[in-house]
């Protein structure tokens, strides 16, 4: 290990200050979450910190409110469907971008990445405008289409990055050995793409599940995503129920991340 | 804008040199790009063009002609102008603060050889996995009248009445910085990581002190990362709704809030569409100016 490290430069003091600063920033980033979790176990109605007693009443309050469960179900379904569609479209497009040279490729790739930086409120308003006459407002498929637009860049980006690292001679070797293009893709390229795709899909699922602004224009009574349901609840009631939901989500996300980290190393996929 | 935005796709474009001329012809390419293009056309281009059209209609839903009246109304109304100014000012402040706070962290992530780097990296991206509602709720608890900061201040006997920390522009800045800092850090780290260590050492060997070596060598080489990070942060801030509403407590009206109000509450679609177009064009203008500025300074 030691012989691989670059020669140590004599600047330990400044490095230590930098490390301390980085630690502070990480603490800042974690702070709201560190506050929310203890409150979920509060026995008090108010959102004061630190909580005055311990109870699980806010967790049982989640179960007592069917709207949270159905919103969770809708959010999960939209996230899965949108991610699946984005995966297919994203991987196909990534193959075109990495393996083919064609005029306007860079500009087109930029267009595909636009939803990453497109102001959410503008996309929301525009989608609501075209979906209303089509009857897609307050519908599952309207939400799913919007979320496909938002998740596609994440899938495409990881797919392009992963595909670039895969030497195309593997697929060509399979081809020479008699595999057709689909077989070469299915049995050679796809298995090598899998870690990158899994990481991209995880991110896409989370982006979709957490999406707020665009969904806000497309939901309605009966078709409500979890972030919107939580927001609506917070407008009228301020008690630790939302903290309890957040804690449940946090546990679910952590499990998913740990599983994927064990499988493929999520950090690696994002250049860490 | 091209300089600034191209930074976003840099990784992909640089990493994907044309390996050979188009092989299997347009059909194969069409099949590969088709689904993605269809999604973009149906979910982005067509809705935006429709919105542009609606913003120019004299009546809705049955227009008798096209007019710039909605734009004129908005751009001559002090109320709307204040909201537009506040929105872009918020985005500029948040971008600046994330750049200043995030740069050293990106530097550390990209260049430190510490074994804790992996953990730090997880600490930076983990907040991205936590619901925005949850994080915003966390800040309302920290900053609220009954919140953590006031509890500590009162416990120490520093204040008698709770400080009203929760109703202004700066609490929104705090919440937005918290949400967007990881985007800035990751964008900058991607570029800083590619700077050849030798270049900075060469500057030092040639007599530049560390500060000069940083300002004259390292910083200009990181401009691309700062540019793409700034574009992401700026665009996500101008389009944000939930943080300004939850942390601004109705005091920080930004364009997103007004657009929502016009379209969903008042159902005045042409005005809402015109506001959204102004937001889009304003963002494009700011980013273009920013891109030109950076291009000029990067060349020095």
Care to describe what's here?
The complex is a heterodimer of chains A (272) and B (300). By secondary structure, chain A is mainly α. Chain A has a single domain (65-269), classed as MetI-like (MetI-like fold), CATH 1.10.3720.10. Helix content of chain A is 77%, strand content 0%. Chain A is built from twelve helices and no strands. Chain A has helices at residues 12-40, 57-64, 66-99, 105-117, 120-134, 140-165, 168-176, 181-210, 213-218, 226-236, 241-264, 266-269. The mean pLDDT of chain A is 82. Chain B has helices at 2-15, 25-56, 69-75, 78-111, 117-125, 132-143, 148-155, 169-192, 197-205, 210-238, 242-248, 255-265, 269-299. In chain B, helix 1 crosses helix 10. Residues 1-23 of chain B have low confidence and may be disordered. Chain B has one domain (57-299): Orthogonal Bundle (MetI-like fold), CATH 1.10.3720.10. By secondary structure, chain B is mainly alpha-helical. The relative contact order of chain B is 0.14. Chain B contains 13 helices and no strands. The interface between A and B is large, with 97 and 109 residues.
The share of residues in extended strands of chain A comes to under 5%
Order of secondary-structure elements of chain B: HHHHHHHHHHHHH
The average pLDDT of chain A is 82
Q: Compute the number of strand runs of chain B.
A: 0
Counted up, domains of chain B total 1
Which oligomeric state applies? Answer: heterodimer
**Unreliable residue stretches of chain A:** none
Integer-rounded radius of gyration of chain A: 23 Å
Number of helices of chain B: 13
Shape of chain A: globular
Number of domains of chain A: 1
CATH fold descriptor of chain B: MetI-like fold
* CATH topology type of chain A: MetI-like fold
Radius of gyration of chain B: 23 Å
Estimated share of beta-strand residues of chain B: under 5%
CATH architecture of chain B: Orthogonal Bundle
Name given to the CATH architecture of chain A: Orthogonal Bundle
Main beta sheet of chain B, described?
none
Q: Unreliable segments of chain B (pLDDT under 50, ≥5 consecutive)?
A: 1-23
Q: In total, how many beta strands of chain A?
A: 0
GO biological process, one term (chain B): transmembrane transport
Transmembrane segments (chain B): 26-46, 88-110, 119-142, 168-192, 213-242, 273-294
Family (chain B): Belongs to the binding-protein-dependent transport system permease family. CysTW subfamily.
Organism (chain B): Methylobacterium oryzihabitans
């Amino acid at each position: 290990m030691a012989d691989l490290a670059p020669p140590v430069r004599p600047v330990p003091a400044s490095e230590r200050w930098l490390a301390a600063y980085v630690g502070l920033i990480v603490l800042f980033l974690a702070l709201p979450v560190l506050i929310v979790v203890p409150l979920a176990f509060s026995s008090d109605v108010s959102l004061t910190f630190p909580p005055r007693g311990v109870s699980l009443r806010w967790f049982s309050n989640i179960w007592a409110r069917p709207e949270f469960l159905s919103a969770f179900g809708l959010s999960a379904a939209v996230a899965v469907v949108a991610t699946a569609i984005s995966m297919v479209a994203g991987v196909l497009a990534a193959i075109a971008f990495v393996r083919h040279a064609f005029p306007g490729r860079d500009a087109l790739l930029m267009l595909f990445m636009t939803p990453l930086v497109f102001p959410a409120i503008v996309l929301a308003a525009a989608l609501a405008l075209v979906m209303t006459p089509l009857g897609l407002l307050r519908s599952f498929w309207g939400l799913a289409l919007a979320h496909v637009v938002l998740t596609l860049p994440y899938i495409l980006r990881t797919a392009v990055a992963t595909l670039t690292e895969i030497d195309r001679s593997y697929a060509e070797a399979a081809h020479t050995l008699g595999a057709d293009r689909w077989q070469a893709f299915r049995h050679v390229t796809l298995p090598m793409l899998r870690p990158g795709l899994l990481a991209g899909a995880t991110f896409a699922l989370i982006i979709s599940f957490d999406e707020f602004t665009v969904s806000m224009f497309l939901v309605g009574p009966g078709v409500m995503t979890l972030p919107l349901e939580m927001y609506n609840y917070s407008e009228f009631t301020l008690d630790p129920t939302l903290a309890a939901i957040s804690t449940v989500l946090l546990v679910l996300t952590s499990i998913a991340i740990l599983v994927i980290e064990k499988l493929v190393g999520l950090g690696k996929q994002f250049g860490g | 804008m091209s300089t600034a935005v191209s930074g976003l796709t840099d990784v992909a474009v640089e990493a994907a040199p044309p390996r050979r001329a188009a092989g299997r012809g347009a059909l194969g390419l069409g099949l590969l790009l088709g689904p993605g293009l269809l999604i973009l056309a149906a979910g982005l281009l067509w809705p935006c063009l429709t919105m542009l059209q609606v913003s120019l209609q004299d009546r809705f839903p049955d227009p008798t002609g096209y007019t710039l009246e909605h734009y004129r109304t908005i751009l001559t109304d002090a109320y709307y102008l204040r909201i537009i100014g506040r929105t872009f000012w918020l985005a500029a402040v948040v971008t600046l603060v994330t750049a200043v706070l995030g740069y050293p962290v990106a530097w550390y992530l990209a260049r430190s050889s510490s074994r804790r780097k992996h953990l730090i990296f997880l600490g930076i991206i983990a907040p991205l996995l936590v619901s925005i509602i949850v994080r915003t709720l966390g800040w309302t608890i920290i900053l609220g009248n009954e919140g953590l900061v006031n509890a500590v201040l009162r416990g120490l006997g520093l204040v008698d009445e709770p400080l009203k920390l929760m109703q202004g522009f700066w609490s929104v800045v705090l919440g937005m910085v918290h949400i967007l800092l990881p985007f800035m850090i990751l964008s900058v780290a991607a570029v800083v990581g590619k700077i050849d260590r030798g270049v900075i050492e060469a500057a030092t060997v040639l007599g530049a002190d560390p500060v000069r070596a940083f300002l004259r060598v390292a910083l200009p080489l990181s401009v691309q990362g700062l540019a793409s990070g700034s574009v992401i942060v700026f665009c996500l801030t101008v389009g944000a709704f939930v943080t300004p509403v939850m942390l601004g407590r109705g005091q920080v009206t930004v364009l997103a809030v007004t657009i929502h109000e016009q379209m969903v509450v008042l159902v005045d679609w042409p005005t809402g569409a015109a506001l959204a177009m102004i937001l889009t064009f304003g963002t494009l203008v700011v980013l273009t100016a920013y891109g030109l500025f950076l291009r000029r300074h990067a060349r020095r």
